[in-house]
Amino acid sequence: MTDFSYQLYSSRHHPLSDTLKMLGELGYTQVEGYGGLFAEADVGDLKAELDGNGLTMPTGHFSLEMVRDEPGRVLEIATVLGMKGVFVPAVGPEERVKDAAGWAELGRVLARIGKPVQDAGLTFGWHNHAFEFAEIDSAETPLDLILQGGPLALEFDVAWAVVGGQDPLDWIEKYGDRLYAAHIKDIAPDGECEDEDGWADVGHGTMDWPTIMTALRRTPCQYFVMEHDNPSDPARFARRSLAAAKTL
């Protein structure tokens, strides 16, 4: 049976202690951290809270700048929390307008700054949004060019690929050998959930999750991370999404 993780960014507007207690009570066993969390929380205290709620944090998001400028701190956090995978989740909006050469260079930069993480025995890679599928001066997409930069793993955000106009099954087939984790999220039907930026609880939107999960399970993907970018009620999202995911 698959253990589903929970991206704590989904509950960023709520007290961390309350969120971890809620997730443990719902039956989650894993969470995924994000940069703002590591900037605010004492890592030792965070580890104790995770342990106290029966949770682990096998994966985490760290900014490109932190991985580049504070690799020792990244490794310290990852070691204390027992992480297995470290992912850069995005670049800023001003960095998302690149030509093919710019995206290829980003891939090379990621490969270079990620080497200390990989040398420490951890998986290192990239987490996509939709901007990596924009049309550029190349037959290849920005995501292709990023991944060509070196031995980078992919945490595939399936719903963002759909927002980017892609068939996620094509990308799962193309980069299945690179997949280490996936974000499990859902898209509301047009005109619905507008107060939640158009996202839906997993299993309550338009994504064909039974088919997608079947494809993901054929890859080396090890972690399946629930995420909602703007839930009005994170507890509702966590509860309904886990119930739906357990049927997949």
Automatic annotation (TrEMBL):
<dbReference type="InterPro" id="IPR036237">
    <property type="entry name" value="Xyl_isomerase-like_sf"/>
</dbReference>
<dbReference type="InterPro" id="IPR013022">
    <property type="entry name" value="Xyl_isomerase-like_TIM-brl"/>
</dbReference>
<protein>
    <submittedName>
        <fullName>Sugar phosphate isomerase/epimerase family protein</fullName>
    </submittedName>
</protein>
<dbReference type="InterPro" id="IPR050312">
    <property type="entry name" value="IolE/XylAMocC-like"/>
</dbReference>
<dbReference type="Pfam" id="PF01261">
    <property type="entry name" value="AP_endonuc_2"/>
</dbReference>
<feature type="domain" description="Xylose isomerase-like TIM barrel">
    <location>
        <begin position="25"/>
        <end position="243"/>
    </location>
</feature>
<keyword id="KW-0413">Isomerase</keyword>
<dbReference type="GO" id="GO:0016853">
    <property type="term" value="F:isomerase activity"/>
</dbReference>
